[in-house]
Amino acid sequence: MVVCGIDVGARTAKAVLLVDGAIAAHSIVRTGPESAAAAAAALDRALAGTPLRREDIEFTVATGYGRVVVPFAQKNVTEIACHARGNHHFFAGVRTILDMGGQDCKAIRCDAAGRVTSFLMNDKCAAGTGRALEVMASLLQVPLDDVGRLSLEAGNGRVTISNTCVVFAKSEVLALARQGVPTRDILAALCDGVAERVKGLLRAVGVEEDFVISGGISKNVGVVRRLEQKLGTTSRVCFEPQVVGALGAALFARDFLGRTA
Amino acid sequence: MVTAGIDIGHESVAVVLLHDTGPLGHATFVIAGEVGAVARCAFEQTLDRLGLERASIQRIFATGIGRENVALADGHRTPMLSHARGAHWWFPGTRTVIDVGAEGTRVMRCDAAGNLTDFALNDKCAAGSGVFLESVAEMLDVPLAEMGGLSLSGSRSVVLTSTCAVFAESEIVAEIHRGAARADILWGVHEALVAKIVATGRRVGIEPDLVLTGGVARNVGVVQALREQLRMDVAVPEHPEIAGALGAALLAREPAGAA
Q1: Subunit contact A167:B163, Cβ cutoff 8 A
Q2: Which residues of A make CB contacts under 8 Å with B?
Q3: Which domains does chain A have, with CATH numbers?
Q4: Residue B259: what pLDDT?
Q5: Rounded distance, CA A244 to CA A248, Å?
Q6: Which ipTM did the prediction report?
């Protein structure tokens, strides 16, 4: 049985192929101006590493922002449900999920079966999303992948950034950089700011263990460590946190196929 | 009696010198360097330009975000009080004042005497601020002073759904790739900015007469979008960027302890 999950996010499109319930391949591509093209590119990239062809896929479920524009998907499911499902696949004990991507941040609670019981989402404001760090990394000319690690090397000189708004904070960051404040210290303040925003969202839904972080932000140790400190808890991260939504979609595809068979 | 009002904003300083019968003159300056020094320099240049002596100014009030850094001022008043008073001086029927500056929006309600009765602020989010317009002007390579006029020639085909200036930037990039005309994108931007301003205003209610102050009031696209969304006339003073400084100068001539 070959099924596919496609997660078309604001910044990246992801695909997961499940063959008889096991992950056969996954991929991540940049989302360009055309969401449908990005979805197709993600699928082709995932197929490229396997002997499979598009025709072999029996059922496809799409999720994410662009889920309604994936022409080759038979169904679509909200990304909230897919993230709960995907994370539950890796961690059966998961009860709270933070999924933080390029354009939004979701705090999700789920039950023992991986079903969503409540959630809160910030998709209105870039502060407290991956985008805030993308913008700042580019401003400070630091590779995004290095932001978290560098932020943990900050000196003792505490820097705070008072603006919540990313646009206003940019001016503040530039002023600090001009004053000669080391980049790692500025990054520490930025990661702390993001963690603080996310903490508010998580506290509002309530944090029960196991606590799992997915989405691109889980690759940022600077945010993850600070969030764990603020919440007084530890977090789990699966092997490829960016494709958890697509995995959830693929698991739903398997359910749909089982029902129609 | 001659009084002075100095308004220290995020990006500029405005100075108004006020005589019994009305303003003697005014000037605006871009902030570069330390705020207190810029305020002093702005004040002295305005005096020079009008041929006035420092001693002829009986009281100086500062207002705006940087009002506490003006050492030469005899006192300071909040920008909400100052804008209400300034707008009321130009338009005595004023009941609502919307001030859109570089870093946010203030909406003031006032009574028939120009006294502040309520206000709402958005200084946390760039989506309702002049900075948003500045960044869009840069993205689309349009002079800031022309973007409002250009937006009026745009069709109503571009609708930005983001409430965040950062996310709106991506939407604008997507529109550019889609081949949308610059004027169409600009109108969509003005609509989005004004929707944010109106949302702030709704917290205190927007009643006529409505006056728009602050530098952004010079943008005819903002004025037009505001008229349409509120279905209300919008009065714009001849020099909207000096409303706060004028208000401070007016407050400075009231007896000490008032306001």
Answers
A1: no
A2: 10, 33, 103, 124-126, 131-132, 135, 163-168
A3: 1-91+243-261 (3.30.420.40), 93-237 (3.30.420.40)
A4: 47
A5: 6
A6: 0.80
